[in-house]
Each structure stands twice: as C-alpha cells, then as structure tokens.
Amino acid sequence: xxxxxxxxxxxxxxxxxxxESKYGLEEGERISVQEQVAIFLWIVGQGANNRNAQExxxxxxxxxxxxxxxxxxxxxxxxxxxxxxxxxxEVHSKxxxxxxxxxxxxxxxxxxxxxxxxxxxxxxxxxxxxGRKGYPTQNIMxxxxxxxxxxxxxxxxxxxxxxxxxxxxxxxNPYFNFSVPRGDEFYLVDAEYPNT
Length: 196
Hints:
The chain is built from eight helices and four strands, in the order H-H-H-H-H-H-E-H-E-E-H-E. The chain is of the alpha+beta class and 196 residues long. A hairpin with a 5-residue loop joins strand 2 and strand 3 (150-158). It folds into two domains: 2-77, no CATH class; 93-188, no CATH class. The protein is globular, with a radius of gyration of 20 Å. Helix content is 37%, strand content 16%. This is DDE Tnp4 domain-containing protein. Keywords: Hydrolase, Metal-binding, Nuclease, Nucleus.
C-alpha cells in the first residue's frame, strides 16, 4: 500500500474517515470513499494521467476525473494550509546572524510574489483566465520566509487578476488567515503590490 499511495494503511483509512466525516466526501453510485481517495493519491503520488488511472482502477475517464476533483476539493480545504507559526517577536536566525541583512531586515516577515500556472477553465469563462501570458492561467500569490519556506499561498484567482487585487483580498478576508504586518514589520514585494 505504501508503494502506491505513499502512506501507511492506518493513515490511509484515517484520511478517508476525515474527508468523509469532516469535509463531506461521499460515496459515489459505484465507488467508495476509499477508492476515490486511492485514485487521488495514486495519481498525485505516481504522477499518473487519467488514462493510466482508467486502466488501474477500471473506471471511465469521466469517473476518474470527477472523483479525483472531488477529493482534491476536500484535500485542499483552506484550514489545511496554515501560515507557519514562528514567533514574529524574534528576528529570524538567518537575518540576525548576517551583518549584510541585520538590522535592515530585522522586521522582515516574508517575500510576496505571484506566479501563473496553466489552467483549464470552462469555455464560457475562458477570457477571464487569459492574462499576460496569452493562455489561460491561474494567478497564485505566495509568501516565503527568509529560509525559503512557503508560509502562505492563495490559489483561486483567474490569470487576468492583478496582483494588487489578490493581495487586497487577502488583507480584507479573515478567512485566509493572512499574516498582516504589525508596527514596523514588512514584506518584500515587487512594484505590482500596493505600498500601504
């Protein structure tokens, strides 16, 4: 089981139970919650495509796709992705131990930037997703700390959305649990972000 799904049998069944009880993943007409999760984990863990999953699990491409996305939607629940809780009162050790960075970056809490990842939206929504790349993308805002660890990511915006709009959405919406700078704290950003 570990070879196929990259987790122990106990953890697999615990994940299935959690997705079912807390996040509402339901059995399909002819497919159990366990098989849906197995399809998802196998595709993600093996880097497999839909056709490989059709052969492995003996379901149609539509069934594989639908159940993969059902599990993905539950697996990416917002409370599963939380900012890293290092104490903000402390200066990060990489900054403190380097005279090139300290004291200039003593109040630094992260770097923010956006990136575009190819997207496949519904045909009627296609134009909204085409941004500066010329093809449909999803505009993702990410925050890294000084150790290059991701501390925040927001992935739901269409490619045509401006970085400042995404950033302002993070500030206004408490649901995202975005780490707002306090006092002299700051993020390093490029010119696409507002200086407020």
